[in-house]
Predict the structure.
Amino acid sequence: MKSICLGRRQDRPGRNRDRSLTTIYLIIAGLAAAIIFASCGPKSDRALIEDLMDRIGGWAEDRDAERILGVLDESYADFEGRDKAATRMLLQDYFGRYRGIVIHVLATRIDEIKAGRASIRTDMAVSSGPAEFFRKLVRYSADNYRFRFLLAKTGINWKITSAEWDEISPDELFPESRTILKKILPGT
């Protein structure tokens, strides 16, 4: 004869532990999804500006004057009064004189972002000539520059409205720039 139990069902041992693990896995998956969706949102102005500086360095290495000129505002003027047309001639002259241009954007400091305007300083190490491998091999140090840019936001993009630059010694680089430069060019 079969016995019928009308009381509470007996759980198997470990069943509560399985439910707890499932709950923990669901919480972790939810947090991971939240992080992924948050990182897929629109980039901040700070991130857009830092990306712009990195792209300019790459365009200079590729000798792509048109792309560089494309991020200059129509009102652009540098510290010596060059407008976009004069800057085009400056870039063409530079690209014509130097082979194997290598530009390392070391660090960008954003001094201010306010009302669609930004003021930034960027350290760059610039070299030309032998391949990057040989620069590292002979412990060649690049020329270091600090660029100061004023930018204006047009829509979702930033455009450079003015620029100035100075060659600086390795000691004058931002501390974070020196750290990056030592990784790129040991012995500097």
User: Anything to note?
Assistant: The chain has one domain: 45-184.
